[in-house]
Design brief:
- The chain contains 22 helices and nine strands.
- By secondary structure, it is α/β, with parallel strands linked by helices.
- It folds into three domains: 162 residues, MgtE N-terminal domain-like (MgtE N-terminal fold), CATH 1.25.60.10; 113 residues, CBS-domain, CATH 3.10.580; 179 residues, Tetracycline Repressor, domain 2 (Orthogonal Bundle), CATH 1.10.357.
- The strands form three sheets. It has a four-stranded mixed sheet. A three-stranded mixed sheet has the order 7-8-9. Strands 1-2 form a two-stranded antiparallel sheet.
Length: 484
């Protein structure tokens, strides 16, 4: 159990980790089937009482959209706003398009402005007229919030400008610690975090220079009459409104920040990005990377599985599959050029799958390691030779170990030392070779301004198939008497 505040009333909610969302979905469905006169309204109220918005949102995704909209309309504004922010994008768009615009605008006014901007952005992509109607409704309730949403939408997608909020505590360096506590108590109740407090030069809002940062913990420990300028950390780390969201996430992770300040293009403090937004960014980026490594284009990314039309799925996959299909013809060329050798030693073909599969697996491991290092900023373009030699050494040692196993397996099959040696040396060579090309592909893609995750895994498989067979057959020609 944990506490949750709603309209000033403290409630106790069930822990999400201990809660069965499927059961809640079924209870909601049963309440919807019961007419109000027969207790349906009471059943709905009882079912939703004390439920966390995240649980309600997940349960609603298991309902038909009209049913989910009915449940949404039943909720009070505090939970409805959070549910709207939690449900998947498809259901969110349906609710925004079908709920009364006045209520949606009221909920947008309740949400943090970065979340409100995200909902408006989704509405713009699907129904621009509806998005503008909601912004106008929001402006009648809070012109300042509507202006902030428009400003956030003016920044490029996936940048710090889109993620930031201007709801944070500002302090002056000339304040005493005691005055700072007074300022905190009087601050906007919608501030995103009190863990970090930002010290400015006292300029008007939007034209303030960031001069320091102070944690609430340090403020509590400071002497009441000390000046903020004496206890703050000067020249804090900050990002620009144009900084890519992945870089923002990496910076927060690197320095263990709970939030990071955002400066506009003129260097003025305009907002902060909090760690909860960074978690969403990391999930989004990992999803994109996983899909890209499967050669799926961005068109179908970050959309619920069942909401993506089949034709869209086909369009997102076919370009890379077609390109890789053409590239895979290299394998056919290698086999055609060496068909006579295969006819003379048919047993060679029995090890094709083992050899190219081992090379592909070794290369896939290397690519995952290198891309991770690049994502974390541990590997840069200037490190290409260091990476190459490191991965060559790794592949050489791994190949040597696997070659022993391959030698034994091939010898037990054919009882020929020369044939077993061919298989063993090929495994050794393919492991070293696949590690080398797998270490270079991501770095080359980055230099060519191509996302490494998009090209690396599919390409390594294709290249290892063709080059691995070539290496195998060349070693066989050199060592087997029948092929000389």
């Amino acid at each position: 159990m944990f506490r949750y505040e709603r309209n000033g009333e403290e409630m106790f909610l069930e822990s999400t980790l201990q809660f069965d969302t499927v059961a809640l979905t079924e209870r909601l469905r049963n309440a919807l089937k019961t007419p109000p006169g027969d207790g349906g309204d009471l059943a709905m109220t009882a079912t939703l009482r004390g439920r966390h918005p995240a649980d309600i949102a997940e349960a609603m995704e298991g309902l038909a959209k009209p049913e989910a909209l009915f449940v949404f309309n039943w909720l009070d504004n505090a939970r409805a706003a959070e549910v709207l922010d939690e449900v998947d994008s498809e259901l969110s768009r349906y609710i925004v398009n079908n709920a009364p615009p006045g209520r949606i605008a009221e909920l947008l006014d309740t949400l943090p402005m970065d979340d409100a901007a995200e909902l408006i952005e989704e509405a713009q992509a699907n129904n621009p007229e509806r998005a503008e109607e909601l912004l106008e409704e929001l402006a009648t309730r809070s012109p300042e919030d509507a202006a902030e949403v428009r400003e956030l939408l003016s920044y490029d997608d996936k940048t710090a400008g889109r993620l930031m909020t201007d709801k944070f505590v500002r302090l002056s360096g000339t304040m005493s610690v005691e005055d700072a506590f007074t300022a905190i108590r009087r601050s906007d109740p919608d501030v995103e975090t009190l863990a970090d407090l930002y010290v400015t030069d006292g300029g008007r809002k939007g034209r303030e220079k960031l001069i320091g940062v102070l944690s609430l913990r340090d403020l509590v420990r400071a002497k009441p009459n000390a000046r903020i300028s004496q206890v703050m950390v000067p020249e804090p780390i900050a990002v620009s409104v144009d900084t890519d969201q992945e870089e923002v996430a990496q910076t927060i992770s690197k320095y263990d920040f709970s939030a990071i300040p955002v400066l506009d293009r003129d260097g003025y403090l305009v907002g902060i990005v909090t760690v909860d937004d960074v978690v969403d960014v990391l999930v989004e980026e990992q999803t994109e990377d996983a899909l890209k490594q499967g050669a799926v284009s961005s068109e179908a990314m970050n959309m619920p599985y069942f909401s993506v039309p089949i034709w869209t799925v086909v369009r997102s996959r076919v370009p890379w599959l077609a390109m890789l299909f053409v590239a895979s013809m290299l394998t056919t060329v290698v086999l055609e050029e060496n068909q006579s050798e295969l006819d003379r030693v048919p047993v060679l073909s029995l090890f094709f799958t083992l050899l190219v599969g081992t090379g592909g697996n070794a290369g896939a491991q290397t690519i995952s390691t290198v891309i991770r290092g690049m994502s974390l900023g541990e590997i840069r373009g200037r490190d290409a030779m260091r990476v190459l030699w490191r991965e060559f050494g790794t592949g050489f040692m791994l190949g040597g170990l696997l070659a022993v196993v391959a030698f034994v397996r091939a010898y037990l099959m054919e009882k020929r030392i020369d044939f077993a040696l061919v298989v063993a040396l090929t495994v050794w060579a393919i492991c070293a070779w696949s590690n080398v090309i797998a270490s270079m592909i991501p770095l080359a893609a980055q230099r060519l301004k191509i996302d490494p995750a998009l090209v690396s895994s599919p390409l390594i498989t294709t290249l290892v198939d063709a080059s691995g067979l070539f290496i195998y057959l060349m070693i066989a020609k050199a060592l087997l008497a029948e092929l000389r």
